[in-house]
Design brief:
With 338 residues, the protein is mainly alpha-helical. It has helices at 5-19, 24-48, 51-57, 61-81, 92-103, 109-117, 122-148, 157-187, 189-214, 222-249, 254-264, 269-280, 284-310, 321-327.
Length: 338
């Protein structure tokens, strides 16, 4: 099973924060840089999203509504149901992180890559992931405020204002300026991708540094981590089954079902980490741990499923190849962070 090299970098960043956490002035500098990086990250998201592509995707609205329901309704329902596992399998902080995981938007790049490998409806996966990310900028913090409340580490009107200023405003600014900078962003995709990922590493370092200084890692034991992995494995298996067989029950064709499965069963690390940093503050390190573990698990499992779908005898030879190749041209399949 594949291990995303970026996950190795993320784990290395966690280790760096554990050994050399930022203190005093360095912590303030890291926090300020992290805030600026988050804003720039969402500015790039806005600059990349094609408005025409999004409008064209609205014609397949049933598929997109299905993915949104899976992402922002079914996932949170299962997250709330997991409350019964506290304190048998999960501690309260780990449960809060698990619940936050269920509120995060779907991925974009990994949904596209796996849908392409499986010969599914790639344009639909592009639009579904983009819609989910856009809706999540507003819906994820609102759901977190309603479902986690003050237990999440400081949810308040001030938190929602921070979300608007740090995430939504930069995203909208990117959309407005896309007319002038869209070409530049497209031409320098690789360089900006490094900035993209570097920003997330900075967010991770800042969050885990603060967690180390506050000593919150003493709350997590290997047994609890094992329990969390079991819960996440069950959650992923259930969502993969629901998106596949639910799509069939709703009358979607095979290519659409593939897009629904890969877009509706996954969660975005790239969107979730910055949001957790804003919403959880000092508690962000424990809050993002379930998301980081789930992200690697979904990549490994979906890689296997995608390859099997490509060999599925149900597939019509050549179906979806043209659209898939066109939609993912220039997008390396191994870059599946989001």
């Amino acid at each position: 099973m594949p291990v995303d090299p970026y996950i190795v970098l993320l784990l290395g960043t966690v280790g760096l924060a554990a050994l050399f956490p930022a203190h005093g002035t360095a912590a303030h500098v890291a926090s300020g840089a992290s805030t600026a990086a988050i804003a720039f990250l969402f500015f790039l998201y806005g600059a990349r999203l094609s408005t025409r592509e999004a409008l064209d995707g609205l014609r397949h609205w049933r598929l997109h509504v299905t993915v949104l329901v899976c992402t922002f309704v079914l996932f949170p329902v299962f997250g709330l149901a997991a409350r019964g596992l506290v304190p048998v399998l999960l501690t309260q902080p780990l449960y809060q992180g698990l619940l936050f995981l269920t509120l995060v938007p779907s991925t974009i790049q990994s949904s596209i890559a796996f849908t392409s490998i499986a010969r599914g409806n790639v344009p639909a996966a592009i639009c579904a992931g983009s819609f989910s990310s856009l809706v999540g900028i507003v819906l994820t913090p609102l759901l977190a405020a309603g479902l986690l409340g003050n237990s999440g580490g400081g949810f308040s009107a001030d938190s929602l204002v921070k979300i608007v200023l740090q995430l939504l405003v930069p995203f909208l600014a990117g959309q407005v300026l896309r007319r002038w900078i869209g070409g530049f962003v497209a031409r320098h995709k690789k360089i900006l991708g490094l900035v993209d990922r570097g920003s997330i590493l900075l967010v991770v370092y800042t969050a885990f540094s603060e967690g180390m200084i506050r000593g919150i890692w003493h709350q997590v034991s290997p047994v609890r981590l094992g329990g969390l992995l079991v819960v996440e494995a069950v959650l992923l298996a259930v969502m993969l089954a629901l998106t596949w067989y639910g799509g069939k029950a709703l009358g979607f064709g095979r290519e659409d079902r593939i897009a629904i499965q890969f877009a509706g069963s996954k969660k975005s690390l790239a969107s979730g980490l910055p949001m957790a940093s804003v919403l959880f503050g000092a508690h962000a390190s424990l809050a993002v741990l379930p998301l980081m573990l789930f992200h690697q698990m979904q990549l490994m499992v979906c890689a296997v499923i995608a390859k099997r779908r490509a060999r599925d005898p149900e597939r019509v030879p050549g179906a979806g190849r043209g659209s898939a190749a066109h939609a993912v041209q220039g997008q390396p399949q191994h870059r599946v962070l989001r």
